[in-house]
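Tutorial handout. Part one gives the primary structure; part two gives the three-dimensional structure as tokens.
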Amino acid sequence: MRRASMQLGRGWLGKPLVIAVPYVWLAVFFLAPFVIMFYISWVDMGNDILPFKPLWNAQTGVLQLRYDNYTALWRSSQGVWFHTLYLDAYWRSAWYATLSALICLGLGYPFAYAMTRTPARWRGLLLLMVMLPFWTSLLLRVYAWKGILADQGVLNQALLALGLVQTPPVMLYTDVSLLVGMAYVYLPFMVLPLYASLSKQNPQWLEAAYDLGSTPWRAFWTITVPLSWRGVVAGLILVFVPSLGEFVIPSLLGGPENLMIGRVLWDEMFAANNWPRASALAAVMVVAIVLPLVWYARVVAEDSRA
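Part two.
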């Protein structure tokens, strides 16, 4: 009896502790930094080196909020709304992130589908190949692409040697080089959720479709693709979210006109030393990222209950 009660006590004690670990982690490393960042976005830094100033004036009893840190994101110095450097950087970042996610989907879906159709003894090796780039520094991999896409780089030298071109085309510091770098870096984030979704499908469903007269192409679009929508959406989010705030790849592979929000944040924080404006930029971007994540979690929960 005593042993059973001790086991019951350990069960009641262990379960909350296990559940509390991710919540504590999120509270310490996500919620607390975001609250600090959100606080800084409402203060007036001025010429002070410290942005942590009281928002409440005890003498006047007035809440001192600097709305300019947010209104400046939507209004230019000429008073024109919705045509600012920050909005242009937001839209450009969203555009490149969307293209990167779609390119990764186009490349990652066939690869993940092929992985699920290979013999089981080879799947571990293929998964290792997908995750192998994570063992190398991101900076080194991006610099490697600079050597490949440079005017006198490996790719242009190969094109000249094969006689396919007479003069080396400009590939570095263009939209093409930016998208190539983004797709290369974030392709594993698309392949892994797609593989997890496709590997759970029952192959007998396709066999039943073939027995009923369906062609392989039609069975693929009516059975395989709809059943893998969770992996598709998860992969798109996993690629889109980090691509939206990417800083290293646009700085090394993108041109000067490819000014994305990550570079704007860096300039405001370190070059202009405007912490409140940079915090406001980051707060808006975090909210824009969290909303689709909340929507996806709600849709998945409703689908699971159904």
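Part three, for discussion. Residues 2-40 form the longest helix (39 residues). Strands lie at 56-57, 62-63.
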